[in-house]
Design goal:
alpha+beta, three-stranded antiparallel beta sheet, 12 strands, about 35% helix, globular
């Protein structure tokens, strides 16, 4: 696949007999993905579900085979590898754009450890094996690696979570029995199928270094994509948005010069997305017609129903009115201290404690727990950044919540009246003009002017 260049489109193409011309005068062919709705839908599905297993996703696998060329062309721009077999489709991605934030939403460290211990044990297992035998070999692998084992309920929960992750990926599948019975019975009668050929596909980004020779360098390579252009492409495809204030020099240059024309724009078209570029950053926005349910947008849709999402909306509105801009990461960011967040959530809970649709009692009685859940939601969707700084005057650490400029899209949604004060509007009464702005219509604050990239980089 040829790389695109920034050569103006109005320059005449070289004649066929100028092959020996100076290299600077040559114009490489730009990349133009096929505008195919089925291929775009498959790309979005693969980005969210990286494992498709025969017997569960037969129709999707057949559709991927029909669109194999277009899919491989698009994912190659991201540095991803698409594996297509008779009964398996596996998309192996490059390192994620925000590994720490994404890891916080993932399984526990204990579950991850047992996931790989079970994989190590499965390599020497027959194609059909009992659950107890596999777990016994995993304990042996833990002892060989010098890891402690306790055989208690917490360890069994971690092992059970790891078994479900293996089953979801089709690497070690349940054939008969109930996996959940293992929680109370280590010898639960469960028959497993071990797919040895799929074990090699588990590591999405194996890298080029030897983890045994230099584990720290291998982890660093696995955590961060070295190429800035591919790093930015994946952030736009796989994350909510890209904030200009949080980019390094190479990423800022890509955002200024290549996000629209020959690099970012065609990639958005391939996924059936719409590029939105503002002074604060950029985003690939999902059109309304591209999905039917919130869960199709990813594991953390926002805005969404529920106590945590409603509390987050109220907090966005509160930060827009009372947040500080001192020492902000960039223009448009608003900051609240941890104490201010908890105080605001406590007040919101009191106003939404009763009535139909009232908040969960658990969160109203424990604002600190609610703050943690709201923080997980906002950081997971890249709408907030939590920082911890120690002032020079004393030893107390100040925790700050920095709300991104993207939150301006939903700040007005938090101004809804509390449940106890709502009144019924008579039929025929004009509706106040405060339209709800859903996620797919745009991300950035409408008060910010759109950046003209071409003029600024000319």
């Amino acid at each position: 696949m040829s790389e695109a260049t920034d050569t103006p489109a109005h320059e005449p193409a070289p004649a066929p007999d100028t092959a020996a011309a100076h290299p600077a005068q040559r114009r490489r062919r730009a990349w133009h993905p096929e505008a195919d709705a089925e291929a775009a839908a498959l790309l979005r599905r693969l980005a969210a579900t990286c494992w498709l297993i025969g017997g569960r996703h037969d129709e999707l696998i057949a559709a991927i085979r029909r669109n194999e060329h277009a899919l491989r062309s698009a994912v190659a721009r991201l540095g991803w590898v698409l594996i297509i077999e008779r009964d398996l489709v596996r998309l192996r991605k490059s390192p994620p754009p925000r590994p720490q934030a994404w890891a916080a939403q993932g399984p526990s460290p204990a579950a991850c450890s047992w996931f790989f211990l079970l994989l190590a044990a499965a390599e020497s297992m027959p194609p059909r094996t009992a659950l107890g035998h596999l777990v016994t070999q995993a304990h042996a692998a833990a002892a060989e690696a010098g890891l402690p084992t306790h055989h208690d309920i917490a360890e069994r929960r971690a092992i059970l979570a790891a078994l479900h992750m293996l089953d979801d990926r089709g690497v070690v599948e349940r054939l008969d029995g109930d996996l959940d019975r293992y929680l109370h019975d280590e010898q639960a009668p469960v028959l497993l199928a071990v797919h040895h050929t799929r074990l090699a596909y588990v590591i999405a980004n194996p890298g080029t270094l030897d983890p045994a020779a230099d584990p720290h360098a291998w982890l660093e390579q696995a955590h961060r994509e070295p190429d800035a252009a591919r790093r930015m492409r994946r952030a736009l495809v796989d994350d909510t948005c890209v904030h200009a204030a949080l980019l390094d020099d190479a990423e800022t240059q890509w955002l200024s010069q290549r996000v629209r024309g020959d690099d970012g724009g065609p990639l958005a078209d391939a996924f059936g997305l719409v590029l939105e570029r503002r002074a604060e950053g950029a985003a690939f926005v999902v059109p309304d017609e591209a999905f039917r349910h919130f869960h199709e947008l990813g594991p953390m849709p926002f805005p969404a129903p529920g106590t945590i999402a409603h509390a987050a909306l109220l907090l966005l509105d509160h930060a827009a009115l009372h947040g500080t801009t001192d020492n902000a990461p960039g223009p448009g960011w608003r900051g609240l201290t941890q104490e201010a967040v908890i105080e605001a959530l406590t007040a919101f809970g009191a106003n939404n404690a009763s009535g139909r649709g009232g908040w969960s009692t658990e969160y109203i009685q424990d604002p600190l727990l609610l703050a943690g859940k709201v923080g997980d939601l906002l950081t997971g969707t890249h709408l907030a950044r939590l920082t911890h700084t120690a002032p020079q005057t004393d030893e107390k650490t100040i925790s700050m919540w920095w709300l991104a400029p993207t939150t301006g899209r939903w700040a007005e949604e938090g101004t809804a009246l509390p449940k106890t004060a709502r009144t019924r509007v008579p039929r025929g009464t004009p509706t106040p003009k405060h339209p709800r702005i859903p996620l797919q219509q745009g991300l950035f604050s409408e008060t910010e002017a759109e950046e003209n990239t071409e003029e600024r980089t000319a």
